[in-house]
Design a protein that fits this description.
- By secondary structure, this protein is an alpha/beta fold.
- It folds into 3 domains: about 120 residues; about 40 residues, no CATH class; about 170 residues, Rossmann fold, CATH 3.40.50.410.
- The protein is built from 15 helices and 8 strands.
- The longest helix has 20 residues.
- The chain is elongated.
- The protein starts with a helix and ends with a helix.
Length: about 375
């Protein structure tokens, strides 16, 4: 994959253009319509298309274009640039004949997102151990034993070791004072990543959620765990049952568009159907949303009933809330309390991947 992208800025730019279009909910590139929107209300058009798309289609920085958009000569240049660049995207098969995104366009966008996210999580130090209640990658941390040569220093049970030092009246740590966690063998985990595709998620929010989903799928599958996907709005838009097929997940994640209301109930009910009926497997649902449910007669009551049903099926639920309001945060707290999951209140969406992987590594 790197061989396609390394030293090829044009390919990367085309992939980012398609990615931005999907995240912004732009499904077609009609040059006349884009031009009309830019001339009639540039600020609104900029909000619709985003800077990445405008920069590539116009050939100018968005701020510069805004300052000159009322000049007739500049409008003529812009109109020609739009027609030329969109025609070129069609010739390169990034767009279909009807100006909609082609399969090649989706593939290029997923390729760019994949490579960028994997390059991103390593420098961030997003590494860790997947832990759940019974067994984990390095084993349960509930039992301790005396330290011996060959044990990992990162497994030292610090509090218990300090108690030994104090009880024995030592001035410093000695080998005999150290206690380490005992660990068992690895067990399998099944995770479903549920992304809210309501209209308010459009733009950077949905983009960050997608990249976090790519990071989760890559790391979990690398650990022989299975990952499923639910895209929900007013209804469950699409889903993939827990799988080790990373390319399948990647292809579906990149296509997610934000355009509906929020109905968490349907997502939770669907996850219950999708998880394997195996009590030996840890089952965990990650709900990612910027709002609590808005669909249904009594959204809060229906949501908590669905959460209780999930818990009865041994499913834990973590909620990743993006800038939730006070009411939404309170409901999210009830959800994780009932389901024995965790609540992450997100303000900086650029660290979404780190939060999602942290939840994966700390499943209990």
């Amino acid at each position: 994959m790197h061989s396609v992208l390394d030293n090829d800025k044009k390919e990367i730019d085309k992939g980012k253009l398609v990615e931005q279009a999907i995240n912004q909910g732009v499904s077609s590139f009609n040059p006349d319509l884009i031009f009309e929107n830019l001339v009639s209300n540039y600020k609104q058009a900029r909000n619709i298309y985003g800077d990445t798309i405008l920069r590539q289609l116009l050939g100018y920085e968005p701020d510069y274009a805004e300052r000159n958009m009322n000049i007739p000569e500049f409008q003529k240049i812009i109109k020609n640039s739009l027609a030329k660049n969109i025609r070129k995207l069609k010739q390169e098969k990034i767009l279909d004949a009807d100006s909609s995104i082609s399969e090649k366009g989706y593939e290029l966008a997923s390729l760019v997102m994949y490579v960028e996210e994997l390059d991103n999580i390593t420098p961030k130090g997003i590494q860790g151990e997947r832990i759940h209640k019974k067994i984990s990658h390095y084993g349960s941390r509930e039992d301790v034993k005396n330290f011996k040569k060959g044990d990992r220093y990162k497994d030292i049970a610090l509090k218990k070791s300090v108690k030994n030092v104090i009880r024995r009246g030592h001035d410093s740590f000695e080998t005999e004072d150290l206690k380490v966690y005992e660990r068992e063998s690895k067990g399998q985990c099944s995770i479903i990543y549920a992304i809210d595709s309501s209209g308010s998620m459009k733009g950077r929010k949905i983009g960050s959620c997608k990249k976090a989903g790519i990071a989760l799928a890559y790391k979990a599958i690398e650990n022989k765990d299975k990952v499923g996907l639910i895209i929900f709005g007013e209804d469950v838009v699409d889903f993939i049952e827990p799988t080790c097929d990373f390319p399948k997940l990647l292809k579906e994640i990149v296509r997610i568009k934000a355009k509906r209301q929020t109905n968490i109930v349907n997502a939770i009910k669907k996850s219950i159907e999708m998880f394997p009926n195996d009590s030996s497997i840890t089952k965990h649902l990650i709900l990612l949303t910027d709002a609590m449910p808005t669909a249904g007669e009594d959204p809060e009551k229906e949501t908590l009933e669905a959460v209780s049903a999930a818990r009865n099926n041994n499913i834990t639920i973590s909620v990743v809330g993006i800038q939730l309001d006070e009411k939404g945060a309170k409901l999210a707290e009830k959800i994780v309390e009932i389901s024995r999951g965790k609540l992450y209140k997100i303000k900086d969406i650029d660290n979404m991947d780190k939060i999602i992987l942290e939840d994966y590594y700390n499943i209990r």
